[in-house]
């Protein structure tokens, strides 16, 4: 998510030493090298806290604009929901200006992994009637929310197929 804050001094007098606080929203990480002031990249490593970073604007003349942009990456473990962000500017000890709140919706990311259990070797030279053969796989939800897996156990030769929990005993389909 790239945020851009445009500061404009709408007065006629210069503003000196304004402090801009730019949040790093919960469940995000500031991307290294992404911070730009008036189009020029700056290093903010010493100015960055866990949940925000500050930038000092030494002077902003009347009518002058000042643009700060930065990018955050949504963390892999971020829950489904909304990430909100707003910027504050402390103009002086009596004046603080807060930007509009920006909301970014975090959607459900689907992901299912199917992995063959490495120790299982499927080399059946002879198949005998009544013998059970186990082909073991692990299905894992790799998304960021609940998911459903549909299993099809049809075999071309009409052999019965059963699905069990990882304990090998509890049936998953009846």
C-alpha geometry:
rod-shaped
What proportion of the residues form beta strands (DSSP E)? 35-45%
Q: Tell me roughly what share of residues is in helical segments.
A: under 10%
The total beta strand count reads 13
Mean pLDDT: 82
Quickly give the structural class: mainly beta
Task: Compute the CA-based radius of gyration.
Answer: 28 Å
- Low-pLDDT residue spans: none
Major sheet? 5 strands, antiparallel
Number of distinct helices: 0
Question: What is the CA-CA span between the terminal residues?
Answer: 45 Å
Order of helices and strands: EEEEEEEEEEEEE
Question: Layout of helices and strands, plus pairs?
Answer:
Elements: E1 2-8, E2 15-23, E3 28-30, E4 36-37, E5 40-41, E6 52-60, E7 65-74, E8 81-85, E9 88-92, E10 95-98, E11 102-106, E12 112-116, E13 137-141
Antiparallel strand pairs: 1-7, 2-6, 2-9, 3-7, 4-5, 4-7, 8-11, 9-10, 12-13
């Amino acid at each position: 998510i790239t945020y851009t804050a445009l500061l404009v001094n709408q007065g006629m007098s210069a503003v000196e030493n304004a402090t801009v606080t730019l949040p790093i929203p919960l469940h995000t990480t500031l991307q290294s090298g992404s911070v730009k002031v008036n189009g020029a990249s700056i290093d903010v490593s010493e100015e960055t806290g866990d949940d925000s970073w500050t930038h000092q604007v030494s002077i902003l003349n009347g009518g002058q604009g000042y643009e700060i942009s930065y990018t955050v990456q949504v963390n892999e473990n971020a829950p489904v929901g909304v990430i909100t962000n707003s910027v504050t500017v402390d103009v002086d000890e009596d004046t603080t200006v807060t930007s509009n709140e920006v909301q970014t919706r975090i959607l459900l990311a689907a992901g299912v992994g199917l992995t063959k259990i490495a120790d299982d070797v499927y080399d059946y030279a002879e198949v005998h009637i009544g013998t059970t053969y186990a082909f073991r796989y692990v299905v894992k939800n790799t998304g960021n929310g609940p998911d459903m897996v549909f299993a099809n156990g049809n075999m071309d030769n009409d052999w019965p197929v059963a699905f069990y929990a990882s304990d090998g005993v509890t049936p998953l389909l009846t």
